[in-house]
Amino acid sequence: MADDNSIIYGLEFQARALAPQLAETEAVRFFVGTQSLKFSQNQIHLVELDEEQSFVNTRVFPHSVGEIWSVSPSPVSHDIITTCYNTLTEESTCLMKSSLWRLPSSESDDRGDSDQETGSGPHHSSSGPLECVCEFDTSEYGKEVKVSAFHPTDGSRVMSIVDNHFLMFDVSESSAKLVSKGTLESKGQPKFMTGKWNPHHKCTQFVTASECSVRSWDLREDNKQAWCIEGAHSQLVRDFDINPNKQYYIASGGDDGCTKFWDVRNPSEPVISRSDHSHWVWAVRYNHFHDQLVLTSSSDARLVLTSVASISSEPDGHLGATEDESDTRKGILADGILATYDQHEDSVYSVEWSVADPWTFASLSYDGRLVISKVPKAVKYKILL
Amino acid sequence: MVDFDDIDNPYNINGPNFCPEMYVQKLLKGSSLKQVMDKEADIVRDTQSLHSDMQTLVYENYNKFISATDTVKKMKRDFRVMEDEMEQLAANMEEITKSSQQISSTLQDTRQQFTKLLGVHSLLKRLQFLFKLPAKLSARIKEEQYAQAVQDYLHAQRVLERYGNMASFQGIQKDCEIILGDLKQRLRDQFKNKEASAKDLAKAVDLLLQLSEPADQLCAEFLAHAETRLEEQLGLLENFQEQDLLEFVDMGSKGFLSDLCLVVASYNDMFINRLAPEMHSSDDFETLATGQLSKFVMERMEKYFALVSSRVEKQQDVGETLILVRALDRFHRRLQAINTLFQHTDFTLTGTNIALKAGRRQCKIHLQALKGHFWEALTRVRQTLAATKVAGQDKDGPSLQELLTSLVLATRVKVKNVLQDLLVFLQPDLMFAMKPMFREAFCVDGVREGLVVGFMHHLTATARGFCAPGHHSVPPALLLLLSKMCLDFESTCVRELLSHTDDCFDAGVGSSSVVTAPNELCTNMRAAAQDLLNHYVRMQGLIVSQMLRKSVETRDWLHTIEPRTVRAVMKRVVEDVAAMDAQVGLLYEEGQRAERSSDSSRRTHSMSVSRQFRPNWSSYASSQLDQSAIATNIHKLFSERIEIFSSVGFSKVSILTGIIKIGLKTFIECVRLRTFSRFGLQQIQVDTHYLQLYLWRFVADENLVLFLLDEVLSSTVHRCLDPVLMEPSVMDIICERG
């Protein structure tokens, strides 16, 4: 069940960074950033699932400034992304940076395949270099840039996370202008693990993970802490996701191997706690359309599709169904594991749902294997019918 | 001459058939002459004598005849005189009768008057009694001879009733009624008198009944009075709640119950047994009276039961089972007494229920106590563990096993003691213990399920509680110990204790209720043991992980010097793992290893495994990185997937394997997040080699360690800016020195 229609795409390099092309709503497209210490070799792959879904088309953009730790696409423009990368300085030491890039126009890939690369897909094309729009100046705030995340709707706002700071940049001009900043003041100098805009409340909150806690910051009120789940996991919180359709509900995953679902109004106790992985949970993602579907990836090289129908925004399944249908044909999805995917051989550091097709998702393991899979048909029909 | 004497014989001379001819013939024939001569002389002589006799007789008779003739002559003369006198007498008699008739007729009136006078006299006497009655009654009442008074009154009552319409009697009757009213009042007062004994009461009731007071009212009054008395008793009992239980029960039995018995007995005597036949509507009255009584008794008994049960509840304590049981028995026995008197309700049922409740409660209290003991024992264990931890690691060695055995033993002994204690409830001389209702409920629900099984569940729950996310400060040794404890219980104690229980309380046999099978408990125990052990592994793994993580995260791997020693943290890891190994080894068996070989061969083997990979790295060239990556990928394809946070087996190597797996996996993940210089890589190389040298001995399958360490090293190679590996010989030297 787990491996029907899975498509595997191999990268030559190790990779951690994966993101869906947010502005694209027609084609299933993902950005993948490679992580090679031969900095000039690094690339960004834009992987598109073909209509027939039997193979993938890719465009490859060299990202020669350094190894990519995270990619984050603009919500409004196809061709705008930010990356956080590790680059080499003149003193031959490493430095983490973050930049805004513009992709070369897509016509360029019609010019034909590049000779330098040996393609792994039927349509594997190398494109022109990325155009660096601007660089986020984070150097004075810390060394480790974790992510530079776009505002969910506004393409001119980017939030960068550096050590224990989050910095909001305005990128409407050609340079990145620091608009606002917030700091986590706590003993032991905790660093942010990751951060995300909260799509609710008119995007006035930014949520971060640090050590064992998940915190929300109110951007209107001088970046004060809005709420906090202390000790969400007994060890590091690796990732979290905010339910896109239901306010106050978030999911988190951590080094204790648990995936927990929270109502942030009650931070003392998770609503659901699951322990389906046999190692750290590195990524957790809500399906944007059917938020009862949650994907988690782990360093046990597995991907788990979980149902949390009991706390989803559509607890009775599909909202459009008439009552007669719902009585007779629609089975309510029970909470629990729906599918386990184990096509990966190495730790799976990221997993993302497609923006275009709610039933498709991609996962990326450290060895550079990108797997595009689908939700099992049985589950799909159960939700739809 | 033979038949001479025969009377009919013709030869008998004196007989009437004497035939002289034959006689002479015979004489002549049979006798000699002499004899005949003699005979003749004899006969002559006899004839002469007879002749003279006859002469005298005749003479005598003649004389008599003459005198008789004289007399007759005389009589003839006398009778004439007599005749005259007789006539005279008849005349006289006639006269006498005449005069006597005269007299009696004259006396007739007087006699009648006399009898009349006598009648008046007796009437007057009675009247006098009546007139005196009021005074007499009051006197009697004053003397408190109520019975006599009632007797008197009843005597006069009929008369009074008959002549009640006469004015003079009406006065008397009124007086009497007043006095009797007073009497009744007094009798009733006796009812109300708290001092009055039941016997007095009975007497009073008897008298009142004789005075034909309405019986049902009397019943009610009697019961009302009895109620006040009994309530008093109950009140007294209530106040004596603090008393010793035995005394309390005795008091209840002697005071309340015996009074109640008396009340019921006298009530039965007075109202039901005696009255019923006399009453017209005897059936109605009997049911009514019985109803009243039973209602009354029920209410009292209810209160009494409530009091007793509340008292019994207060009593309950672990150490006092014997007293409790004895008190319950006494209580129960006394109920038997009232049961015989009052057959409508089986009070022993309620009594048995109270006993059963007490039994159950006792079980619960014992369970609580057991839980408490267990918790205390655990706390002691924790303290000991904490103390030994402070004191030093080598000291906690021997005590862990000892702690375990003492914990298990103490728990076992405690449970057995409790069972022993509860056995008192089943002593054969106890009345309530003989009831099947009590036996079954107590043995199965109370002891077996409630106490023993409940305690087992508590054990697993408590043990599991330490795995809960809230418990961060649990010493790992405790988890280990608890896990082993659960295992010990699973293997022996559960069955032993349950069968012990079943033996003592014959609970498992022939009971309708569902009993928990030992297997279920064993499974629970095993699951708990597994959970605890997994938790232990995770905790210990976390400790190792944290050390490794910090060591990787805090170091600047780009600016590190050429490795000269193994980093201290690796030694620390090995030490800690060794300590854990020792700790686990105290409680768990060694377990199966994948393969066994001697130390030296193992060492060369491990070296050879490493060498398979090493040529790639040592002769590292940029183009070969991909190949090495492919090599590891292929290696992964053919090796089994390693579950990191997985269940471990109940053996030392399995546990240690679990811990080491978690630690090394963390190592891999942390290394992947860093960037290394050449010396950084070499340091990791040295460290992994060191770990490889020392960790194999702890695990079930050394290839696992090798694989994970290779993964660490290859990950580091990937994260290295200038991946040049150290010469193995140098590495060996460094490691041996360290």
Structure, described:
Chain B: It holds the Pfam family VPS51_Exo84_N. Chain B: Component of the Golgi-associated retrograde protein (GARP) complex. Chain B: InterPro entries: Cullin_repeat-like_dom_sf, Vps51. Chain B: Belongs to the VPS51 family. The complex is a heterodimer of chains A (385) and B (738). With 385 residues, chain A is mostly beta strands. Chain A has one domain (7-106, 122-315, 328-384): YVTN repeat-like/Quinoprotein amine dehydrogenase (Methylamine Dehydrogenase, Chain H, 7 Propeller), CATH 2.130.10.10. Helices cover 4% and strands 46% of the residues of chain A. Chain A has two helices and 29 strands. In chain A, the strands form seven sheets. Chain A has a five-stranded mixed β-sheet, with no helix packed on it. In chain A, strands 1-29-28-27 form a four-stranded antiparallel β-sheet, with no helix packed on it. In chain A, a hairpin with a 6-residue loop joins strand 23 (281-286) and strand 24. Mean pLDDT of chain A is 82; it is low at 108-121 and 317-330. Classes of the chains: A mainly beta (385), B mainly alpha (738). The interface between A and B is medium-sized, with 25 and 24 residues.
* Total number of beta strands of chain B: 0
Main interface by residue count: A-B, 25 and 24 residues
* CATH level-1 class of chain A: Mainly Beta
Give the overall silhouette of chain B: elongated
Assembly form of the protein: heterodimer
Protein name (chain A): EARP-interacting protein homolog
Region (Disordered) (chain A): 103-128
GO biological process, one term (chain A): protein ubiquitination
Domain EIPR1-like beta-propeller (chain A): 5-305
